[in-house]
Amino acid sequence: MAVFLTNEWFEQVEQMGNEAGELNLPPALANMIVNLKVSDAEQDIEANFTNGLLHRGLNDSATTTLLLDRDILQSIITDFDTNQIMGAFMSGKIRVEGDMSQLMAVQTARPSAEQKELYSRIKSATTMA
């Protein structure tokens, strides 16, 4: 098991994503490219959400950047509870820089069965230490 957001974890996520193949993402998720700046006690982490997966580093094509902490991102990845995500946004725990329209479109998008299966595999292979 890899520790969440470590280089090893990103490598495992990429491998699992490649193995999963087509995720049949709804258009709002398939077209979403969002950068993430994650604050962490040890070090800040830059990542991006593209093609339904988290990737290391920032994506130059992103027009939106989310600023959030590790615990909030962990909750989003493990639970994908839209009410919890909206609550974190409304309370300022998730801040948005840039174009919010992608985030508004994703509110009604539901993950595909393939994406849910992949996220379940990622969750079971992740330690949140």
TrEMBL record:
Residues 28-108 form the SCP2 domain. InterPro entries: SCP2_sterol-bd_dom, SCP2_sterol-bd_dom_sf. Pfam families: SCP2. This is SCP-2 sterol transfer family protein.
